[in-house]
Every structure is written in C-alpha cells, then in structure tokens.
Amino acid sequence: MAEPVGLNKEMVEVRTLCDAKGFSSDMGEIWQKLALIHTEVSEATDAYKKGEPLEKVGEELIDAVIRILHLLSVLNLDAEALYQAKMAKNWARPYKYNTVRGG
Ligand SMILES: [Mg+2]
To answer: What is the distance in A from the centroid of ligand 1 to the CA of 42?
Structure first.
C-alpha cells in the first residue's frame, strides 16, 4: 500500500469514487483503461479545436488525470513515488532534452 502522501491521496480518492460508482478495477481490463485515457485527451483536443472555454479543455484533461490515477491504483503502484522519481529524472535532463524536432 502506497504511503498516503501527495498524488497518492488523490489516487485513493479516485479509487474510492470509482468503487462507489461501480466502475471496474479488474486487472483484466488494463487495455480498456489505457484506451479510455486516450479518449479524454481526444475530448480535450476536440474542445480546444472547437473554441470551447479553456475550462472545458481543462475539465477533459482532469478526466484524463482521474483515469490515470485510477489505472495506477488498479496496478497497485505508488503514484507519488513515480511522480517524484520521474520529475527528478526530468530535472536532470538537458535543455529541451536534446530534442531537435520535438516540442
Ligand atoms: Mg471527459
């Protein structure tokens, strides 16, 4: 069980909500959960493209965050530890991560 700090607090809340609202946390549905994260990013893209208020774009991005936290919970991972480790790794990388054509 991940220590209830940082992102793990939100992950526990998301998992509690998903359980309470009847959403599956079945390990056999990982592919579906990954695909559903994509759908939220697509919804944000569509909202931005259509000129909807930025709050709507943000709402869809938060949907993606919620789905990611749910999946991390299903996988029994420590979201906060992963976040901290990845940020430390990113801070150690060079400017623009040495990409030439990337954003
Ligand atoms: Mg959505």
So the answer is: 9
Q: What is the pLDDT along the chain (103 residues), one digit of tens a residue?
A: 788 899 999 999 999 999 999 999 999 999 999 999 999 999 999 999 999 999 999 999 999 999 999 999 999 999 999 999 999 999 999 999 999 987 7
Whether 80 maps to a domain, the answer reads: yes
How far, in Å, from the CA of 44 to the mean position of ligand 1?
8
pTM: 0.93
Rounded (10°) CA dihedral 87, 81, 35, 42: -40
Number of domain units in the chain: 1
In a domain, 2, yes or no: no
Q: Tell me if 73 sits within 8 A of 15, measured CB to CB.
A: yes
